[in-house]
Amino acid sequence: MALNTSSPHIIWFKNPLAILANNAEGGLVIEGQKIIELVPQGQQPTHAYSEVMECSDLVILPGLINGHHHFYQTLTRALPQALNKPLFGWLQSLYPVWAGLEPDMLYQATRLALAELLLSGCTSAADHHYLFPEALTEAMDIQAEAAASMGVRMTMTRGSMSLGTDDGGLPPQNTVQHEDIILADSERVIKRYHNAAEGSMLQVALAPCSPFSVTPELMRHSAQLALQHKVMLHTHLAETIDEENFCVQRFGLRTVDYLDSVGWLGPQTWLAHGIHFNTDEIQRLGAAGTGICHCPTSNMMLASGIAPVQELEAAGCPVGIGVDGSASNDGSNMIQEVRQALYLQRLKYGAQVSHFDAYRWATEGSAKMLGRSDIGSLVVGKQADIAFFKLDEMRFSGSHDPLAALLLCGAHKAEHVMVAGRWRVKKGLIEGLDVSPLLQQHGAAAKALATKISR
Length: 455
Ligand SMILES: [Zn+2]
Known about the structure:
- By secondary structure, the chain is α/β, with parallel strands linked by helices.
- The protein contains 14 helices and 18 strands.
- The protein has helices at residues 87-98, 103-119, 139-150, 179-193, 216-229, 241-251, 255-261, 279-288, 296-301, 309-315, 334-349, 355-369, 402-408, 435-452; strands at residues 10-14, 18-19, 27-31, 34-39, 51-54, 58-62, 64-66, 122-129, 153-160, 202-208, 232-237, 269-273, 291-294, 319-321, 386-390, 416-419, 422-426, 429-430.
- Strands 7-8-9-10-11-12-13-14 form an eight-stranded parallel beta sheet. Strands 2-6-15-16-17-18 form a six-stranded mixed beta sheet, with helices on one face. A four-stranded mixed beta sheet has the order 4-3-1-5, with no helix packed on it.
- Strand 3 (27-31) and strand 4 form a beta hairpin.
- Helix 2 runs parallel beside helix 3 (139-150).
- The protein is globular, with a radius of gyration of 21 Å.
- The relative contact order is 0.16.
- Zinc ion binds next to loops.
C-alpha cells in the first residue's frame, strides 16, 4: 500500500533481521501507542502507513519487563562492608547505610536505574521501595516524578518494614515505620498514583518487605487494603534457608504456610525469588496463580540458591524476571539478566532450556506476573513497547541465529527503545537525557550516603 502522509501517524517497522513474534517476518505496524498489524514474510501492511523504518539490521523484541528491583541500591553497589556475605549478613551491613537515604539521593537513584534499564531494552519496571527514614516519607512521590521524567512504564510498590531488632526482626529500629503510618501512606499512594487503565504508565502495588522485617498483622492489613483498592501485592519470599528458619522459629510455619496464613496466597501476589519450595508448596503456589519473579544474578551473588522455575511454571505460576536490587546484582541490565536466567536454569534443568524460554519469562511472564494484559508481547492490540537490538559489535561477529545470538553472545545494550509508541532510546542514547550530569549527581549522592554513617 502506498505511503500516506496524512495523519494518523502509522509506522511500519519493515523487514526486521529477526523478531520475537509469530508470523511477523515482514515486521509490525503501530498507530499511536498500540500495535495494529503484524506483517507476514514478503508482504506489505494492509494499513496505510505514514512512516517506514527499515529494520533489516535490527532484532526486534517486546520491551523487556523487570519484575523486581530496588532502585535506591544503585547508590551502594560493591560497598566494601557488604562484600562476600549471604543475605542476612549482607543486609545487616547495608541497613545502617540505607537509613541515611535522603530525597535527592532517591531521585537520582531512580533516574539512574531507569536509564540503565531503558538502555538495556527494558520498557516497564517494578521497583520495591521499602525505606522510609524520617527524611524520606515522600519516597513514592519522588519515584513517581522520576519515572514520569524518564518515560518508562512503572509498577511502583509501596514497600514497608515494621519489625525492627527490638521486636526480633532483622532491620535496625531507625529503618522501620509504625504500621498505622505505613497503611495510611499506602492508601494515599494508591489513591494518588494508581492507574488501572489499559496502557497505564504508573501502577501501585503494596509490598511489605519480607517475613523477617514486617509483622503478620501488617501482611494481613496490606492484603485487605490491596483487595479493597484492587491493587497487587508483592514481597520477598523463600529467598534463603535463613529466612525459612526464621519463619519456622517465629511463626511455626514454613514460608508458603505463612503466606497462606496472612491471606496472600492468590493471583494478586507476586513473590521475589521463590527458591526454597518443596513439591507440595510449588503445587499450591501454581494452583493459586501466585507469580514468581526469578532474580538469577542476585541469587548467585548472595549464594541463595536456584529457583525451580520450570516446576513453578508447569504448576501454573506466572514466572517473570527481575534484576533485583543494584546492590545484589550489582547492575540494572535487563537483557543481561535474561542471559543469566537462561544459564542458571540450564544448570538446574539441562541444556534444553532455550533462549525462547528465557525471553518468555522476561516478557509475557513478567507482564502476567504484574497483572498486566496490555504489554509483554508483540501482538495486535497490545502497547507499542518495543526494543530494537543491533548485532554490530565484535561480540556478535560470526553469529548466525540473531535471536539466539542476542543472549548467547551477551547483548548488553539496545539500539532503540520505544515505550507506548514514544521513542525513549534512539541510536543507543536516551531521548532528552544528558547522561553526564546524571552520573555526576548520582555518584556524589552515593558518596554522600556511604560516608554519612562514619560522620
Ligand atoms: Zn529484592
